[in-house]
Amino acid sequence: MSFQTIILISVYLYILTSAISQPSSTKKTRTGCFKLNICKCVMKDGTGVINLRGMGDSDGFLGRSKPVQSENAPANSETLLYFNPCQPFSEPADLTGADCSNVAACLIIRFNGIDTYDSRYINYGRHEGNDFHYNDSMKTLSVSYYALTIDNQPQTIVHYHCSPNHSTAVAQNLAVDKPLQIWVESPCACPNACAMGDLGPGTILLIVLSISATAYFIMGSCAMRPFRTSSGVQIAPEESVWCRLCYLFTESKGGRKRRRYYSVREDTL
What we know:
Layout: H1 3-21, E1 33-37, E2 40-43, E3 49-51, E4 63-68, E5 77-83, E6 105-112, E7 117-123, E8 126-135, E9 140-146, E10 156-162, E11 167-170, E12 180-186, H2 201-222, E13 227-229, E14 232-234, H3 239-268
Parallel strand pairs: 10-12
Antiparallel strand pairs: 1-2, 2-3, 4-5, 5-6, 6-7, 8-9, 9-10, 11-12, 13-14
């Protein structure tokens, strides 16, 4: 079971116990989205999980070579946006140590010459330290991405709106002293719309085994009579319980013919 799954189960249990323990007369609606990792949060009211991983293309990008209008840009240049909400990337991919290395958003300014062009890469936000803010009335999750860990001003703010449509829009004009604004319309911005995609078969198997083990010990403590042994008091079911379950299973699969066979055998004996 992954660390994120353990945190998710713990948050759900906390929300459930808080809702049960709080009286209905004083109960207030909990709003917001509790951050689990860089691209996932769980709703504080218990309605589900918002997972940003299912919004992008096959490589996770929501914007790739997307044109952006920039203020005071030279006439012979163009500004392109690369944005990936969950997977860090580098541009150019074969150049390490550049400004756009392991980032969430990158702006590329290309200066077109007569025969060649020159490119400048600008870091416009990393995944580490991003902030989640949920607007319940607008059903919109806003995530802020910072270029520097010591900078309090985000470089990019992405607004994920819960919608059946799929679209990505960028602010018309990019200002130097203001963050880049991106608006995303996607069903994955709705709680639990894309929450099951990251649960692998191993995690599901572990959850089933945990529930089975819990039920086994509850049955042993409630249905079986405890008795004292040399090693202490035994409350877990004995081996006979497993044999009885197997017997009932084979009886149900064998049908009437199997039961008649046993009845004849008992009469014979």
